[in-house]
Amino acid sequence: MPVRLGDDIDDFCVKCKRVMNHLVVSIVSEGPAKVRCKTCYSDHDFRNEQAPPPKEKKPPVVKVAAAAVGLPGVDLPEVDLPEVDLLVEDVLVADAEVAE
Predict the structure, then answer these.
(1) 32: helix, coil or strand?
(2) How far does the chain reach from its first CA to its final CA, in angstroms?
(3) Domain-by-domain residue ranges, the chain?
(4) DSSP 8-state symbol, 47
(5) How many CB atoms within 10 Å of residue 11?
(6) 33-62: per-residue pLDDT in tens?
(7) Cβ contacts of residue 59 below 8 Å, gap of 6+?
(8) What's the pLDDT at 25?
């Protein structure tokens, strides 16, 4: 049976972070394209009840910068940032020139 506008359909809500009841808001090629969550009323693309892939965890920028400078007590795995190392050396040279 084809899906029609206003039909109830289950889908993963990106705002509620779970499978919830939705209303079909738009249709493309006889399939739902956009849906509206009946709990939080947010509109989003139809996901066919599939959650988005988990986001990649990145270390905070402050810890990466502290590790690049070499501050003690920073627990961070080895960081390869040649651009940051060059910037730190430039700053140290500039500070030495100002101090003279």
Answers:
(1) strand
(2) 82
(3) 8-45, 61-99
(4) -
(5) 22
(6) 999 999 999 999 999 888 888 887 776 676
(7) 76, 79
(8) 94
Confidence class for position 71, pLDDT limits 50, 70, 90: low
Around Cβ 97, how many Cβ atoms within 10 Å? Answer: 8
**Beta pairing partners, 10:** 21
The answer, yes or no, to whether residue 8 has pLDDT greater than 60, is yes
Q: How far apart are CA 77 and CA 66, in angstroms?
A: 12
Question: Counting every residue, how long is the chain?
Answer: 100
Q: Name the phi and psi angles at 19, rounded to 5.
A: -75, 125
Neighbours of 46 (CB within 10 A): 21
Distance between CA atoms of residues 83 and 43, nearest Å? 42
**What is the distance between the alpha carbons of residues 91 and 78, in angstroms, rounded to a whole number?**
22
Amino acid (1-letter code) at residue 9:
I
Nearest residue to 48 (alpha-carbon basis) of 5, 87, 3: 3
* Tokens linked to 25: 């808001």
Give the pTM: 0.53
